[in-house]
Amino acid sequence: MKSPTFSSPSVNGSDRLTEITLYLTIPESYRQEPLITQLVSRYQLQVNILAATLGTNGGQGQFKLTLIGQSEAINDALAYLEELQVSTVLDQDLDGW
């Protein structure tokens, strides 16, 4: 599944912050990896965890996150998650939680 790409009109160049909400499904193979931390350190994003579910005996994890940062950094982060085969779905104001 191809990750969504987000673009925002720029005001005053590239210093405008963009905010998106999305759902991630992280495979069990990445359960012990700091994927959300990587979004902060690699892409200088602010991450707010709105909801999360994890299996008690392993399994995949599901997160609802808000990402705040430069549009380019958000797109780079989404591409990174796609490379890892982490499912990402943009929230279209349909709160399934």
Characterize this entry briefly.
This protein is α+β, with helices and mostly antiparallel strands. The chain is built from two helices and four strands.
Number of helices: 2
Please name the CATH architecture.
2-Layer Sandwich
Structural class of the helices, strands and pairings? alpha+beta
The level-1 CATH class: Alpha Beta
Estimated radius of gyration:
13 Å
Low-confidence stretches: 7-13
Helix content: 10-25%
Portion in strands: 25-35%
Task: Please supply descriptive tags for the structure shown above.
single chain; 97 residues; alpha+beta; Alpha-Beta Plaits; 4-stranded antiparallel beta sheet; 2 helices; 32% strand; globular; ACT-like_dom_sf
Account of the protein in words:
The protein has helices at 35-43, 71-83, and strands at 18-26, 46-54, 61-69, 87-90. It has a four-stranded antiparallel sheet with strand order 2-3-1-4, covered by helices on one side. Residues 7-13 have low confidence and may be disordered. It has one domain: Alpha-Beta Plaits (2-Layer Sandwich). The chain has 97 residues and is of the alpha+beta class. It has two helices and four strands. The longest helix has 13 residues, at 71-83. Helix 1 packs antiparallel against helix 2 (71-83). This is NIL domain-containing protein. Residues 18-90 form the NIL domain. InterPro entries: ACT-like_dom_sf, NIL_domain.
What's the helix and strand layout?
Elements: E1 18-26, H1 35-43, E2 46-54, E3 61-69, H2 71-83, E4 87-90
Antiparallel strand pairs: 1-3, 1-4, 2-3
